[in-house]
Write the structure tokens for this entry.
Amino acid sequence: MKPIRSLSDLAINGAPPAFAEMLHVGRPNMGDREAFLGYVNDIFDRCWLSNDGPLVQQFEARVAEHLGVKHCVAMCNGTIALEIAIRALGLEGEVIVPSYTFVATAHALQWQGITPVFADIDPATHSLSPDAVRRMITPRTTGIIGVHLWGRAQAIDALQQVADEHGLKLMFDAAHAFSCTHQGRMIGNFGACEVLSFHATKFFNSFEGGAIVTNDDQLAATVRLMRNFGFSGLDEVSHPGTNGKMIEIAAAMGLVNLDSLDAVIEANRRNHFAYREALRGIPGVRLLGYDEHERNNYQYVILEVDARCPASRDVIVEALRAENIMARRYFWPGCHRMEPYRSLFPHAGLVLPHTEQVAASVIVLPTGQTMDAAKIDTVAQVVRVVVAGAGGTPSMSF
Ligand code: T4K
């Protein structure tokens, strides 16, 4: 890795890139290859590939046990799991969601003819502000979907209070929050149900995958039916349904990755604190923290670039990408500025000032098992030199 001490060392100014291979946000963490191949052999021997197979059942039992939740219903991905949960809860009309989230949260509603109503976030937590939610309730509102963004628990109790006061259903998009706690209790136990994603880019993956987790027996039974076309017997269909099934090979990957879950979290935690150290003192650049009293998965390294920073967020991202550091601007520009919402609600931004401000300031940096302290120092040094250069400091040596 080249030393980066001054602006002339930067690839954006013509120097060779710091990394020969791209560093990705969301580079999959891969579990033990031999263990996985062992499962694959078993799958071949059994000739059982899908439809509630034995590995899916094992996977569900282990996830439920890990979270201390009664039911885990594994799905083909987090988006279908959201759609099934939304339908099983009978949501209709309008449902309040953040705009500052991955677009799947909003699409899962829109796809089913339900209007996502975007409420603003709390700029400190990046998750729905309960007061903002209150302001968006209308006679057509039937539910709220909170998102535990970055794996940090949403203001769960306050949202539950709003939901109870107005007779609304509350569920959570917990796609980022597998293996995280809220007040010492595992996320997965809150609201009517919570939805997980095990996509390749999540710190814990099953190639593609997701789950609905809940302590409600009736809801679990319903989503289980809906996941498999509503089949309740060989030729008995007792409910509307779709195909949301997790396949055996995905469950195999999930089982293998469950075995290395703690190792991945530890790598992410180390990376988080290495970034904290390496980025210290850069003006206007803040690393978003995690509550150390909770269990966190540390899967996202979030920088916020504020008005005090002499360099813009986008200039920093451009400089990082030139070095083959594929920094991301999640979740810019916000769902309300994506189609079809941009056309449907052209003025939504007027009530989303914090969403717009946060979406314009965030940079997500690479973490996971493929990162180490030396790579993190280089990433931070790029940010430091770009910021110093924009502030008029000609060179910096560390
Ligand atoms: N709710 C929330 C809050 C979510 O964040 C998500 C998903 C969902 C719901 C829906 O859950 P799923 O239906 O996906 O289970 C990625 C993921 O595709 C998406 O799952 C995730 N959120 C979102 C935050 O990130 P993109 O558009 O950034 O993906 P992409 O293709 O740009 O990949 C990210 C980086 O990872 C790239 O630099 C390449 C690298 N990569 C990716 C894959 C797939 C690899 O190195 N290897 C790989 O196999 O959305």
Summary: The pocket of T4K is lined by residues 24-28, 77-79, 101-102, 104-105, 147, 173, 175-176, 197, 199-201, 210, 326, 330 (CB under 6 Å). The chain is about 35% helix and 15% strand. The first strand starts at residue 23 and ends at 24. The two ends are 15 Å apart (CA to CA).
